Amino acid sequence: MANLTLLNLETPPPRAKLRYSGKGLSTRSFGAAKMTRQTMDWAMDPLSRDQKIFQALKQLRYRSRQLADNDHTMARFLALCSTNIIGPTGVRMQPKVKLLRGGGLDENLNAQILSNWYAWTRKGNCTTDGRYSFHALERLTVRTMACDGEGLFLKNSWDNPWGFAVQMLDVDQLDTTYFVRWDGKREVRMGVEVDKFRRPLAYWLYSGHPSEVGQGPQDRYRVDATSVLHCFDPDSARQTRGVPWAAPAMGSMNQLRGYMEAEVVAARVGASVMGFIKRPTPEGDAPDVDRNNKDDGEDEEVRTDADDIDATPGSFHSLFDGEDITTFKSEHPTVAFSAFVKECKRDIATALQVSFTSLADDLSEVNFSSIRAGLLLERDMWRVRQKLVIEQFHQPIFRAWLSSSILAGRIDISVRDIDAVCAQIVWHPRGWDWVDPLKDEQAAAMAIQNLTTTLTRVVAARGLSLEELIAERKYELDMIKAAGIPVGTDNKGDATTASDDQQDDQADDAGAKKKKAAGRMIPHEDAEGVLRNMDGTVHNPLQP
Fold first, then answer.
1. What is the reported pTM?
2. Taking the alpha carbons of 455, 456, 461, 466 in that order, is the dihedral positive or negative?
């Protein structure tokens, strides 16, 4: 038996004295933690994430909206978010509910769920205001999460065949300044009531936007968390509210926008002002003396502001005696303007986690390999955010819709089966095709043959479903067969299958090559003195 040392937990062991010199500690410390002349302006922030958000969320959100309205780089980023996360067709839902016995799919139930879901997602059914389809609501949700940092929704019982609709709220209705601490079990943090584990219990909301014209003093009302959908991308533990996705790059965006505006103004001035008129000052007069009123009563003819020369094409102008023109040459935009703006946008793209080519729409310095490598990393980031939106937006809404649809009699299952059904729902976000589809198809085929991937994964990477693809292909083949239309290409005019045509073409090519080669063969005599070709046939000199 091993020797065990009993520890006396009541009496702590004596602490050992540490001996060190300040010099030795300084040399072994982290360079980023040293206090030197170079790091004195490096600010340190010991605040928690919620404290920082409380101090800065309103300013971040308002400035993010201002950039979205006026800055083309921010507008491009928000468009990329909507296009790459949601795409042109939205995130598609596919039920794969299995039978209780046999392990196969319950085709009737899956068809029932699918048909009711797509009927509910049409415009006029899925939102309380009736203004949006579910696809439009998806795109608006992603844009709001990217610009404001959060999305806020109410899950409402509604007067439609499914008894359910979604109401989208403005995140300003959730008061960031509202803090209440009742006891050690619950508190309100920035308008969100949470328990001691930071699980949301309720949301304290304004009835309308607090800054709208005509809105009087508003009271907050408590809404249970089961009826609220609060979507944001957390970047820290115990975080209650979300921040705009572009927060790390917003300062650089604003500085770049100001610089480009100054360059444009300077360039416009340089293009508009051609020069200045220099006129001599009479001896003894101050430069600011009005020379139209002299002591001797005589008026001197001088040029006034109304006599400025307008530079019109093909015109000549005369000057008064003693006047001269000094031309004005603007140096804006500078030679380094394009390179400087490009480097600034590279830094902004890095902060936004997108590729420079996508953000700046600049393909001047890329090749196939570099753009492919950049897009691979960017698309992984989009997949991460696709997963975030599905988990925080699509799945909770589908669960609430399914529960309401069961109660309304639209889905023929028990309420007890909601968890089992929701676990068997597959969401297909958008996928992407490559610039060189031939090589990617060949690589995918080789990977499937070598068992390093499956056809299901290859199809899913493009945002498609293998089951739907096979069903659609079977429908096409059955329709073509029923119509009696031959499909294929044939140079002879007979439309058969493409594979037969390829075999015929290959056979024709082989015969032509053999005949051509035979015509070039040098005849020779065999053992019996017969003149034969190289392929063994009898040589006939009269045959062409």
1. 0.75
2. positive
